[in-house]
Amino acid sequence: MNWQDIDLRWAYSDLLLSLSRQTRCVQRAYDVLHDALVRFALARPAQPVTQPNAYLRQVAQSVLIDHFRRNARFQPLPDYHEQNDDTLFAPSAEHLLDIQQRLTALQRILDCLPARCREVFWLARIEGCSQKEIAEQLDISVNMVERHMARALVDMRNARELLRR
Fold it and tell me: Which of the ends of the chain has fewer CB neighbours closer than 10 A, N or C?
């Protein structure tokens, strides 16, 4: 069973198994595979694809990396299923104050960045836009997007080091 010269039996057996091992979740592996198939269908490579299965594997790896990067921004809550009462988890006042202080410090750092640099950082890290999307949206080159991101990250690292002292 082929689709655009891809053996779908291979994709839904070997490739899916490989993705399942990497994600440790079959449902996530299905999501990654489906996203990879969509990217493959929408891709317009300059050269004809001579090995579509190998190309799909590379596309799937890129989707998987994007998936892990996107999910790295989220922090799971602790598991509180072993509580005897039916109360919902609520963070402590100390934890909330710590989060508030960190966010305030982050906001101060962001406020010190030039406007365009701050905008590029926000689009990349908060909105999850790619460098190409940011360049198109702000009507600047990808090189300038990289420079703005580098400046923002260096300033944030320097501020973090100052706070640790």
Answer: C
